[in-house]
């Protein structure tokens, strides 16, 4: 609780100055000795002159009646503090508001005599809870600014920064390279951060009415750790891309093999139909020899064609014992896609004997 009085006496009476914190109770003194002989003619009046020079009546006593609800701002908050008829006309205000600040005058009149008292009331407002903020990058070697400010409160407001001790051996003072902005005492610069700069910092805002505080935590990070994290993330992304690429190549290879397997039968079906087999009758031994060579050549041609179609067709009849050596040759397959038929000796036509 804050009490501050100053007294001086002049021709108009006693002057008093009082400072009191808002939301508290205050009593403005006013004493007299004019009510004892004749109480019926006693008049008491309290006047307020605010900081803008406007004057208004706060409370009065006249004709044995008290009138206290004279202003909306002070309605229900003002009253005589004691027995004003017995000589104590002090004024009580509760709870106190910043708008109550100003110069109060107490005028007591009885039977042509006057007594004046003047009180200067100053209402103090304690700082509102400040807001702590942090500006800058919390990495080693960088600078950070701590900001603290109260939105309201009686000027001047003094700001004070300190470090809160959380462990044994920690220093409550700011780091050695800290600087205070004297043009704005609520700002403190933490220069060239180190890991030892990490901790809890408290700002206290105070004035004549009281003080309020807030805290902010500073956590300094390694620059190397940030690079390591970035490198790890980059490596993970690159690894994922590489795996995706390998899977894609494997899928493409499988698709290509399946496509080639499906196209190979199509190429076989599109080949031309192989020529049908035919019998060639030799007319002489020389022609028989030529027919034999022709049959052998035709057989090789047929075999080559069948190789492209993945078929094998090649037979040649063998002469029975005692018969002429003239033979007939089978040339070519009978049709596309069918198995080659073997030529039996019973199906061959006997060749004419050639004279010796």
From TrEMBL:
The keyword Lyase does not apply. It is found in: Cell junction, Tight junction; Cell membrane. Residues 283-309 have a biased composition (Low complexity). InterPro entries: CLMP (IPR042454), Ig-like_dom (IPR007110), Ig-like_dom_sf (IPR036179), Ig-like_fold (IPR013783), Ig_sub (IPR003599), Ig_sub2 (IPR003598), Ig_V-set (IPR013106). Gene3D superfamilies: Immunoglobulins. It is a single-pass type I membrane protein. The keyword Heme does not apply. Residues 259-356 are annotated as: Disordered. Its main location: other. Residues 24-111, 130-219 form the Ig-like domain. Residues 259-276 have a biased composition (Basic and acidic residues). It comes from the Eukaryota. Keywords: Cell junction, Cell membrane, Disulfide bond, Glycoprotein, Immunoglobulin domain, Membrane, Repeat, Signal, Tight junction, Transmembrane, Transmembrane helix. The chain crosses the membrane at residues 226-251. GO terms for cellular component: bicellular tight junction; cell surface; cytoplasmic microtubule; plasma membrane. PANTHER family: CXADR-LIKE MEMBRANE PROTEIN. May be involved in the cell-cell adhesion. May play a role in adipocyte differentiation and development of obesity. Is required for normal small intestine development. This is CXADR-like membrane protein.
């Amino acid at each position: 609780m804050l009490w501050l009085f100053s007294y001086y006496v002049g021709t108009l009476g006693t002057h008093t100055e009082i400072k009191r914190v808002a939301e508290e109770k205050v009593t403005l003194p006013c004493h007299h000795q004019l009510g004892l002989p004749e109480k019926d003619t006693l008049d008491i009046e309290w006047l307020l002159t605010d900081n803008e020079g406007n004057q208004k009546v706060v409370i009065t006593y006249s004709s044995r009646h008290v009138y206290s609800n004279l202003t909306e701002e002070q309605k229900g908050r003002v009253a005589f503090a004691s027995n004003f008829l017995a000589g104590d006309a002090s004024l009580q205000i509760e709870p106190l508001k910043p708008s109550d600040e100003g110069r109060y005058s107490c005028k007591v009149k009885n039977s042509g005599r006057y007594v004046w008292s003047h009180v200067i009331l100053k209402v103090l407002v304690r700082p509102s809870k400040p807001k702590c903020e942090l500006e800058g990058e919390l990495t080693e070697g960088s600078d950070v600014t701590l900001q603290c400010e109260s939105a309201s409160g009686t000027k001047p407001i003094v700001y004070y920064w300190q470090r809160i001790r959380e462990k044994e051996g920690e220093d409550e003072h700011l780091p050695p390279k800290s600087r205070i902005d004297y043009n704005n005492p609520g700002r403190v610069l933490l220069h060239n951060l180190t890991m030892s700069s990490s901790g809890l910092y408290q700002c206290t805002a105070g004035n004549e009415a009281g003080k309020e505080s807030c805290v902010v935590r500073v956590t300094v990070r390694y620059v190397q750790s940030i690079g390591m994290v970035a490198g790890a993330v980059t490596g993970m992304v690159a690894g994922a891309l590489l795996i995706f690429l390998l899977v894609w190549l494997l899928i493409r290879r499988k698709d290509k093999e399946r496509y080639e397997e499906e196209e190979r039968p199509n190429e076989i079906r599109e080949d031309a139909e192989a020529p049908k087999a035919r019998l060639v009758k030799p007319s002489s031994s020389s022609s028989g020899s030529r027919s034999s060579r022709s049959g052998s050549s035709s057989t090789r041609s047929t075999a080559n064609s069948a190789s492209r179609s993945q078929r094998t067709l090649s037979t040649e009849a063998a002469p029975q014992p005692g018969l002429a050596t003239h033979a007939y040759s089978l040339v070519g397959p009978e049709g596309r896609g069918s198995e080659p038929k073997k030529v039996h000796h019973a199906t061959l036509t006997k060749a004419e004997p050639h004279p010796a």
